[in-house]
Amino acid sequence: MTIANWCVLAACLLPIFTVGLAKAGSAKKTAGVPRYDNNNPREWANHLSGWQQRAQAAQNNGWEALPLFISAVVLAQQAHGDQGRIDTLALVFIGLRVLYVAAYLMNAGTVRTLIWTAGVASCIAIFLQSAT
């Protein structure tokens, strides 16, 4: 398996980890504040605020980012693009996604947008490996 393929797996797991932070944080909530309810998770998410709400939003964005990243990796590999470059760009994407989650949790909107833009650019760069 290539490094890029491992990065696809990491990209798929990152949103799960991100929302796990919010769920774990709700276990510490005081009485009267809704805790995570596995029987009604979407209702629980509607009551989040602060960093937990941002973690939930980062999770959603993580799922939204997957189609572009996965298709870029698959198409570049099918076209026999430079695997070293594909791997490097995939690692860059994962690094940017981790930074994106951190920026989201810290409520750093402008930085988060710049990181998101760099992540999209890395996916486009992976796509371009299919043209070589």
Protein described:
With 132 residues, this protein is an all-alpha fold. The protein is 77% helix and 0% strand. The protein is elongated and about 60 Å long. The model has no long low-confidence stretch (mean pLDDT 92).
Largest sheet: none
Number of helical segments with 4 or more residues:
5
Unreliable spans are: none
Beta-strand residue percentage: under 5%
- pLDDT average, as an integer? 92
By secondary-structure content and strand pairing, the structural class works out as mainly alpha
Helical proportion, percent range? over 70%
The number of strands is: 0
What overall form do the CA principal axes indicate? elongated
Radius of gyration: 17 Å
What's the order of the H and E elements? Answer: HHHHH
Distance between the termini: 21 Å
Quick rundown:
The chain is mostly helical and 132 residues long. The protein has helices at 3-26, 41-46, 50-78, 83-105, 109-128.
Sequence-ordered SSE layout with sheet pairings:
Elements (H helix, E strand, L loop, with lengths): L2 H24 L14 H6 L3 H29 L4 H23 L3 H20 L4
Helix pairs in contact: 1-3, 1-4, 3-4, 3-5, 4-5
Key traits:
77% helix, 132 residues, mainly alpha
